[in-house]
Amino acid sequence: MTTRQELGQRFRDSSAGSPWKTFVLEVHAAGQEQGDLLLREVFGSDQVQSTEDAFMHAIRIEGADIVVDHLDNRFWSFHSNARVDQILPLLKETIEARRDLDWMWIPSQHLRNVLPGSRATWVKSDFRGKRLLPSQARVQDLEVQLSGSAADDVLALIQGEYSEAISFDRVAVNAMDREMGSVQEGVSRQGRFVARGDSFEFHQELVSGVVGRYRQLVEMVEARTINWEPLDRGGMAFIGFPIVMQFSRPIPDRDLFAEQLFSCREPFRLWGVPRDHDDQIEVEAVDLHVGQRVRFDIGSDWLRVYIFEGGCGNTVARLITNLQHYFDGALRLLDPALQAALELSEP
Amino acid sequence: MATLAGVDDRLLPLNAFISLCTPDHLWPSPLAGVGYRISGLEVPVASGGGRVVVDAVAFREDANRLLAAEAKSGNNVDGDQARRYVSLDADETVRAASITLTATPDRSIQGVYVCFAESADRISMGLEGAAAQLPILAVSRDQIVHRGTAFSDANVQAEFDSPVETSGYPPRYITVDPESSAQELEDLVRAALVQEMSHSHPQVSVEVLAQHAIPYLSMYGAKARGRLVEMVDAAARRICESDPDSFVYGRRTERRPYSVVEFRRQPEEADRRGRTQMYQAVARAAGRRPRPRREIEGQEMLLFEEFIEELESTPELSEDDDGVDE
């Protein structure tokens, strides 16, 4: 039997051994019953066990015990204290093979603020521009790893001069609360948390905060999807509009940029045939992560992305996060409300 | 302006008007700034003893004002049509476009012609000849200029007192219409096929394909809709002929009154590398040029505290070796 109380005890016990992992997946399954069915379909009925809690299931994969908490209908937490190499490969394979599961794709600004008001004690920024930038680029690759109380400040110094090449990839914080206790928490940009401490509740609160901020961004994107509605007497109404990303500098080689973006390869996994149309590139694309149509226009220093009815906000979050990582750590969204949700400021 | 694919340039005036009312924060949207939003496209409205199909109806909710836009890709004005735009009744248009009135000011409507800048003189003469006093918005690559009759909404007039600067093309909401060619539909149809393929469907009917390729298909009347489905059919057939390794076209038969496209490739059943390569093959058949692969450095191990090390110890997504262009 597994209860939330027992999960908390196992979290505290893990302080002595392998640290606790919580991998958050974005899932498209409506309601508790469908969650149960989905888990059984994905991992096999014999590997999935119900628990006393209707929204928690225990699964066993590759000898590792995982507890799946799907109380949040959309963002499921996979908890385990097994080794990462026991659980991550299978989760990766599973996600790639399905259209209804995806990672979270946490933007750089959200990682920087995993615990608002608290400074990171360890930071890794990882910018890999070799795929989308020509060799003449000012900075093609930049990997920085810092620890200490001034880690964030040192990174800010670099950011002041080379903002395009700073992209938060992982951070760690020491979180302390008089009431709740303390946890050491590491977070990666794909929503993988590792933690150690004396408060599972505090760990969950931190995870929940990151998920909540991410959810807001994703749902705001979805509120802008282009939807067509037939009118009773003929004709059509529509709502929604495309989302525009403004880069901090011109795209140096747009052909290279488009070819790589639509190469069908990880991490973008976008299918499309870029077409030149005067001074912009236009692409009718498919997001292979979720099997949804997406349209792109690419200008000299901007990218316009159209998400259509039924499209997933994760498509845009994934694009933002990966473009920050592979092309421009300083990109902005031109929609002020979306930009505020991205940089966690007031619109 | 040359068109290689994507939005049919004939549709630029329509997309321009939609974009003037729909902020994407890159292309200017002064009508949205005043409060107008698109309420309907291709809306049939009774007017002047007949009916006019209004290309785009925009509604300003706080003032109950409507703009009815006729988007012209050519030089000619149909006199009867123009006079019907002049005679449009606001209440009839509210009903036709199913607009919800949340305020009580008197309703008003004004027609507006949107055309290319190079056609503006001819359109202006055409409207004069038809005794149709309507404002014109002339669209070029770098600006939108108001000509002719003033806008009755003073706020709109103020926005167009001087040219509205633009850069590049407006967003592409409407990419094809019944006057487009099958060739112009090919990229849309191919993307719809890949979408179906990514869901491991064994085949797709042309009707379903048309809905996916042109999500606003049902806004057109039956005849125009039928023509678009025929063009999707023709585009699907061409795609199948040009990429027989991926797609097979099945003509409609006595038993099956619709044509289908069957998928020869099932990328989702392949391993990671095979899957990527299959999708790439479909793109190559459509004319995508492979580029030499760039050398990407491998990942480095990082050292930190134990729990970070463990997270690092498992290779991340091997992002650079899951498929090759040639």
Could you describe the 3D structure shown?
The complex is a heterodimer of chains A (347) and B (326). In chain A, 31% of the residues lie in helices and 32% in strands. In chain A, helix 6 (200-222) packs across helix 8 and helix 6 (200-222) packs antiparallel against helix 9 (336-343). In chain A, strands 1, 2, 3, 4, 5, 6, 7, 8, 9, 10 and 11 form an 11-stranded antiparallel β-sheet that branches. Chain A is globular. The longest helix of chain A is centred in the middle third of the chain and has 23 residues, at 200-222. Chain A has helices at residues 4-13, 31-43, 84-97, 108-112, 151-161, 200-222, 254-261, 313-326, 336-343, and strands at 20-27, 48-50, 56-61, 64-69, 75-80, 101-103, 122-128, 141-147, 168-177, 181-188, 192-197, 227-230, 236-239, 243-246, 270-272, 275-277, 280-287, 292-298, 302-307, 332-333. Chain B has 2 domains: 9-165, Trna Endonuclease, Chain: A, domain 1, CATH 3.40.1350; 182-269 and 280-284, Arc Repressor Mutant, subunit A, CATH 1.10.10. In chain B, the strands form 2 sheets. Chain B has a 7-stranded mixed β-sheet, sandwiched between helices. A 3-stranded antiparallel β-sheet of chain B has the order 8-10-9. The longest helix of chain B has 21 residues, at 222-242. Chain B is elongated and about 60 Å long. Residues 1-6, 292-305 and 314-326 of chain B have low confidence and may be disordered. The interface between A and B is large, with 84 and 80 residues.
